[in-house]
Write a structure and sequence with these properties.
mainly alpha; about 0% strand
Length: about 80
């Protein structure tokens, strides 16, 4: 559960909150695609031993999962700042 902003007259207006979260979400989705494009190549790791590519692949997947979690949180924030939410 993440903390969600309260929209009220003394705070940031709903549209600004929503647009900010939406832009951040889109940027993270783009980052996920760019990170996916950097998938480890075994030829870059074999001098470090036979398990090196396995570790590099695991770390690569972990980075993607972290970004996906951030994207999910931002999506929740987008939803809570939609009109009528």
């Amino acid at each position: 559960m993440i903390m969600k902003p309260s929209v009220h007259m003394n705070g940031t207006d709903r549209a600004s909150l929503h647009n900010g979260f939406m832009q951040a979400h889109d940027a993270v989705i783009e980052a996920i695609q760019k990170v996916k494009a950097t998938s480890p190549n075994g030829r870059d790791y074999y001098p470090q031993g036979s398990d090196a590519i396995i570790h590099a692949g695991r770390e690569h997947r972990d980075r993607i999962v972290k970004l996906q979690r951030i994207a999910e949180e931002l999506e929740q924030l987008c939803l809570c700042t939609m009109r009528g939410a």
